[in-house]
Amino acid sequence: MASVSHRISNLLEKMTSADKDFRFMATNDLMIVLQTGNVLLDTHTEKKVILMLLSLLEDQNGEVQNLAIKCLDILVTKVKEPQVEAIVLPLCTNMISGKEQLRDISSIVLKTVIVTLSQTQKNLSHSIVKKMAESLTSAIESDDVSIQLRVLDIITDLLLRFGPALQEFHSSIIKALLPQLRSQRQSVRKRTITVCSNLVLSCNKTIYTKLVDYLYTKLCSNKNSSQVKTYIQCASAVCRQSGPKFGEHIDKFLLLTLEYCDTEDDELLECCLQALGNFITTCPKEMAKNIHMVIDVSLKYLVYDPNYIDENAPEDNCSDENEDEYSDDDDMSWKVRKSAAKCLEAIITTRRELINEFYKSLSPILISRFKEREENVRSDIFHAYISLLKETRGETHVNHNAMLTDDDEESSISLLQQQIEPLVKAVQAQLRTKSLKTRQDCFHLLKELCIVLPGALSNCIGDLIPGILFSFKENSASVKLDVLSFVYRLITTHPPQAFYPYISIFLPTVINAVNDSFYKITAQALNVLQEFVKVIRPMDAISGFDFRPYTKDIYVCTYVHLKATDVDQEVKEKAIYTMGQVICNFGDHLRAELPDCLPLFLNRLKNETTRLTTIKVLTQIASSPLGIKLPILSEVMSILATYLRKSHRVLRLSTLQLIDSVMNNYHKDLNEDLLKPIVSEIPQLIDESDLQVTQKTLVVLQLITVYHPNSLQNVRTTIMPQIILLLQSPLLQDSTLQSILGFLNSLIRCDPSGYSIYLRLLKEPIISTPTTLSRQVFCSLAKCVATITASNDLVTNEMILVFINEFKIATTDHEKIFALLVLGEIGRKIDLSSSDAINIILESFVSKSEEINSAASYALGSVCVGKLSHYLPLILKHCQPESANLYLFLTSLKVAIAGLSETREGKRELLSQAPLVWQQLYTCCDCIEEGKRNVAAECLGKLALLDPNEFLPILESYLNSTSPLIRSTVVTAVTFTISDQPSSIDQLLIQCIGKFLNTLKDPDINVRRVALVAFNTASHNKPSLIRNLLDSLLPQIYEQTIIKEELIREVQMGPFKHTVDDGLDIRKAAYECMYTLLDTFLEKLDLAEFINHLERALNDHYDIKMLTHHIIIRLSQICPEAVLQSMNKLLGPLKSSLEVKVKANSVKQEYEKQEELKKSAEQVIAVLQSIPSAVAC
Fold it and tell me: 75 — phi, psi (to 5°)?
């Protein structure tokens, strides 16, 4: 420390030198010393350094001054609080008095110091900034304008970074600020507005109200245009910064602002329209009732151009000569039109529910204004229309898979379709202007149109071509990229036939772009060229278009870039993709060229940077229906074998996909020697750690087994052990299991003699470690054993008897369970009616072991799949309400229905028996046990899916039953008919789902609970079913969230009383529905009401509190403005959750639950704090 002090003393002495170079070097050395992380200074040295640096701020040399500023910035983080004050307070004094140059320097230093203090210790920072605020507040009212401006800048930074810490000064700041809004200097008024907007981020309600009321009073009483403009700008800034908090004042400001819109002052009009845009963006809910007034004003001023009359000119006459004829530097009306366009854009983006109306009222006017003479305004009009298209895109995504009985000619898509012709006509005129920005906006709009309405431009392509070609001739790279991006989107969203008349025009232009010197244009042009190849000769249809004249030109153009090695990586990859498409589509007409081209792919395959791209392209070529000959195949296969051992996951997956394609299409060109390296890598790829790679590997393995079985010489010792391990994994998924079954089926057919060995391997886990295996493992192994048994005709009948005998002599439950499962799986594939299997299955129904009962139930359902006519009467006979094993037989019926529904023949067979099955199931709907009713409901739902016209009306009629048990079963059955995939039942469901969900009003609590589950299922899987019912269903959902005292009871448990809340489950179901609604129907929710129910939930049961925390976090992510508006409502209950203490005599679980609740509440608070402007609430 002594050495540092001594060194600094020497530097300070040099800083007083008359030589500016000495002062510069000494100050620079001091900065280096201070930047050392562990430097410590004594108090005396600190004071000397500070005094010297402050004096250097007045140095005559600018470079020395700059270094002094940097040193002071570093120093505030190194010295103690009194010394920080010694830096800051003199600077504040210099700000108020002193020379003009010193005030400038002091202002710069203070701004730098404020930024630094905001990143250091809060306690120190808050203490310092309070003294800064105290020192500077009075200077706001200084007579010297230059002082005022600098002080206002500093106060702005202080409030932005330390607003909450300065609350004691807020009243004095606002008192000093308000008179400055009347200042004669516009610069002072602007800075005052900025300070006011930052002040509302952290001020209390009293000061906030005082500011808002002051602005309103002045707007009411002041008629001076300049003053009115200032007050409107301030109100707009306050609204923007304070967020939804401004909502309660919005009505009075809106009416005043609309009043002032009736003026001839262009600057005031601009401010009014900007304010309206901010009001709409910040407080969309409060503005809803007056939105049409704002639309009318915005449309009025969108065409406001008092100094320019063009009554006779046609709309499409937009020549450059006319643009240049008129020029008036004093004309400010363009700012009014610009603000009107911005305001319309804000309306469009916040009022999606009015989108159909927008297409009727806004769209035609926006289209007509594409001819706007001012470039900046024209750009904003284009952006407003693009926003309209984007909102339409959102609407189409919302309605995806919707069963719209929609002859609806009023849908947004229909209305847009009707306006395509005038829209294209207006855009077409702008595509020939000199303005690059306008043309880029045109292409952005057209691109968005293609996304929203694919095929919309099919009849207009010829009209757009002149504009496209005109922009291709432009030297601007950004314009060319925008054109290519649009053309790419145009090709990918329109049918090939639409382009055939213009191929001869398009292709030469695109080929020229491919040869452009700028690599980005080349890459994008190659992308477009690849799509043109698909258009010229589509592989999935016969086009009739003569593609041959273009084949060579496309090939040569692409070959040049494929062969080049000194090009950008992006161009290399695009060239590989494009050439792959060329070969895939034109390969049969390029036989002479392929010997030169294909070796290039081999080179790219060996290159680390292009190998992945090349593998994907070779996969495409190998899958081509043209059957392209691949002389490089042997070398490719040897390279692919090495890639299988790479750790790069995507590379391995792509490699396996290529091998799959080669095996399917070129297996005749392969031999054992080529496949041997690949087969040797397969065992290590079969692993539970990556089931996707495993599944792809098994598919490849099956193909090798089918086409080249001799390549699998060591399958029993290398591959089968890995498969057995995989079958024991709890992570095994059905898709992977199906791949295993496919491989085993092929394996046993080509190696039937190995049956006994494979059987022993598959049974080994059951024999050696049965207690460690889950039920899933038993089922998986049973499926495999059944597959190899049913596929080997030589041993099938014999092995059925063996498995029956094994069950009879089994000494453990595990052996019996496995035998039952194997017989069941065999019974799915083979008729077992002639065997003794049914007897041992039925005997197992009365076993004392529940696991054996369950296995027997599954086995009976499975054998019923193989012979429905034989086993179904037996199952139905026992599906009586008084049956002792009703649940087991219902489960068997469920398994049978599910198995038969997988195939078309099975569905036909099941439908023939469906009425009988349905009748028997109905008798089980009134069972007391919920488990039995749920299984019956699932069976009813699956039958309804088979013949919805027959069974859905019957289900609907059951809603009139007097039994609440039947009603709950029926609603549960409907839940099983709703899937996330399109189904034939959807058209009927959308007509009757309301009646089923109307059971939310049912007097029975269990019926209401299952109705909530059905609502949640529909909302999650197929929201279009309930979209039109939401207004009537939402109040019923909210009703179920209320705690009802009549459902709370006390139960005596020995000497203790235990409180039971029978309404807890239904409330949880209701809040789960609310969580789902956020993702599916956010635009239809009244978020203020939604949050009110969340507030109540935060004081509910532990389970509901935890669920509510998740809802709040999700809502904060997707709609932070609404959460901000209700922040105070949520913070109180959250704080209470943090302060709750568990009773001293509570069990360990209570402590753990409370700890989890605290962590969850802390997470919610952290998310709330991360919302921008959260501090303002």
Answer: -65, -35
Is the distance from CB of 1102 to CB of 1152 less than 8 angstroms? no
pLDDT tens digit string along 1107-1156?
A: 999 999 999 988 887 787 777 788 888 888 888 777 777 777 888 888 89
What gap in Å lies between CA 1017 and CA 1038, rounded to an integer? 17
Distance CA(1111)–CA(1122), nearest Å, equals: 13
Same structural domain for residues 551 and 522?
Answer: yes
Provide the 8-state DSSP code for 584. H
DSSP of 47-115, one letter per residue?
Answer: HHHHHHHHHHTT-S-HHHHHHHHHHHHHHTTTS-HHHHHHHHHHHHHHHHSS-HHHHHHHHHHHHHHHH
**Side chain identity, residue 477:** A
Tokens of 278: 């901010």
Is 648 part of any domain? yes
Question: Residue 430: inside a domain, yes or no?
Answer: yes
Q: Are residues 231 and 268 in the same domain?
A: yes
From 492, 571, 487, select the one nearest 534 (Cα to Cα). 492
In degrees to the nearest 10, what's the CA dihedral of 738, 740, 744, 746? 70
Instruction: Tell me, yes or no, whether 645 lies in a domain.
Output: yes
* Separation between Cα atoms, residue 613 and residue 601, nearest integer Å: 10
**541 DSSP 8-state letter:** S
Burial class (CB in 10 A: 0-12, 13-18, 19+), 845: middle
**Taking a C-beta distance cutoff of 8 angstroms, is the pair 235, 215 a contact?**
yes
Same domain, 488 and 500: no
- The domain total for the chain is 5
Residue 822 tokens, joined: 């194997």
Report d(CA 196, CA 211) in Å as an integer: 8
Residue 434 lies in a domain: yes
Note if the pTM is more than 0.85.
no
Distance, in Å, from the CA atom of 702 to the CA atom of 680, rounded to the nearest integer, reads 15
529 and 514 Cβ atoms separated by less than 8 Å? yes
- The amino acid that residue 910 corresponds to is L
Residue in 183, 109, 200 with CA at minimum distance from that of residue 143: 183
How deeply is 180 buried, as exposed, middle or buried, from its count of CB atoms within 10 A (0-12, 13-18, 19+)? buried
Range of the domain at 1110: 1052-1176
Looking at the structure, tell me whether residues 224 and 345 fall in a common domain: yes
Q: Which CATH number do you get for residue 523?
A: 1.25.10
Q: What is the DSSP letter of 1061?
A: E
Same domain, 457 and 550: no
Q: What is the pLDDT of residues 609-659, one digit of tens each?
A: 999 999 999 999 999 999 999 999 999 999 999 999 999 999 999 999 999
622 & 706 share domain: no
Residues 1088, 1151: one domain? yes
